[in-house]
Amino acid sequence: MLAAALAPPASKGHFDELRGGHAHVQPPQSQSQSQSQSQGTQGQSEPILQANTTAGLAPHWTTFFNFLGEGGFEDLNHRTANLRRQIRDNGVTYNVYADANGPQRPWSLDLFPLIISSDDWAGIEAGITQRTRLLNAVMADVYGPQTLLRRGLLPAALVQGHPGYLRAMQGVQPAGNMFLHIAAFDMTRGPDGKWWVVGQRTQAPSGLGYLLENRLSISMLFPEAFRGMQVQRLADSYESLINSMKALSPVANSRIVLLTPGPYNETYFEHAYLARYLGLTLVEGSDLLVRHEKLYLKTLRGLEPVHGILKRLDDEFLDPLELRSDSTLGVPGLLQVIRAGNVQVANAPGSAFLESPALLGFLPALSEHLLGETLALPSLSTWWCGEQAVMQDMLPQLKNCVIKPTYPGSRMESVIGHTLSQRGLDEWAGRILRHGEDYTVQAYVPLAQTPTWQGEKIAPRSVMLRVFALPDGTGGWRVLPGGLARLAGKNENIASMQRGGSSADAWALGQEAHSQQPVPGTATPVVPEPAVSVPALPLLRKQPVTSRAAENLFWLGRYTERAENSLRLAQITLQSLAGEDQSSQPLMSWVNQMAVSHCLVLPDVPAATQAKRVFERSLIAALGNTATHASVGF
Fold first, then answer.
1. 592 and 532 in one domain?
2. Does pTM surpass 0.70?
3. Which domain holds residue 561?
């Protein structure tokens, strides 16, 4: 507890999660904007604040450290070692393509969770649920009557000019009018302690599997704190997702699959983990087949119907017949099956335009129009530079903002204004003047900093929280309690796993968490919660073996048998060459011919009868040669 109190404070201008930092507010500067683009909720700008580092620990962090007992730093080091061992044993990985040492590395998880008080979580939950209803209503209008476009509440350039808008989905109305089954929102806490929405992901949001692994790992390391602080559980949210998809499927006894791009995707581990946890069949596009406007799974027993898809594949790759013709990841004819209403897809194709940062500036007005409600959870002030008045007003303020691409595919990363020189700011101003609609400007807010365990000490690191809205089974949405906390790496402005960041579990506390006191010696093991309730388990289908998986198993068995035979033959050959007794000349000739014919050595290697030691070394080296397809190591 004393060590926690002596931990270094958050950086200047950042909210200190450990101390629940108070802040000194300076009057906000007024900023002009177009009539259609509002500045967050209630038209407010972000205040310029400085965290107060003299406050004591926040109540929930005090409770957390009290539950740790008297083990001290040595106990935390021991738990860290256990955490790393568990991640290694579980094979949790993440593909980092920017890593020069290789794309695949172990999942990075910090020892301490991000703790969210019950009051803060209640506000987040209400705001995220409202935003999910709004985004679903926007998508229903865009692919339906398009009143938002006709009335000018939403610029056509941000919808029909966005590559994520799919004209093939125009007029499609999914079952229950539910376009979005999973919506992810990236959030941060400003220096004033308020939560702000930074962005949203609707096409194929990642994190549901990793946050589950984070929860299971951290809850087992801190069982007393996890139970005593009344951390809200996750399993009910996953169960409601599956139950909702089954309820909206075209048949009663439906089969749902998880569609993945394959093992080369950066989050493939999560796809496999989530499919197993939810009891779904993990499939690739080649495992599925369309016949007579219906979708089928190719198995050893023949074709089996599929009624629901939980997709982790970007929309443009879904159907090579109507979208990208060069895609080998999708299913030819899938969009026609969707239009016919014979398969339920989560999320419905065509939601990618909702991910544009420019849309955030229009959501307050859209909420008033579609829901008749004011947004409960504000977005960071956002301006789309496709409107002349907005662009002219924002150019002088670029230094205090973040420049983002409006559309995907530009390969442009976000640019933080205050990191640029005056020359750099002028160059960006020129780009925006020439191609305004390609850029969106968002107010910069320093990320909150949470305590982490770094090298035997507590250190603050910038954090961004991703929360998820899932169906509640009654036609609405619920927010999965907690989320995926992403920790920034060396650059405190960016929290990204692809850029050297890490992750943390996120604990959303229940209403009674403050009243729980630590009782030594009362810890009980934390048992992983199944996504499907126990009474439903006997009703689950037996998992089929897909034709692709069966073929892979066949070749695995064949090459394993070949490797075993090659090793046995190599052993016999080496035994014939070893020892003081020289084998007979005919036997050595036969051994030499057999080794060459079975590709144990190359034909140009001197024969065993001529240079026994050279032959022996060549045989051993060839076994592990990864460049030769006939070797054991290939």
1. no
2. yes
3. 547-623
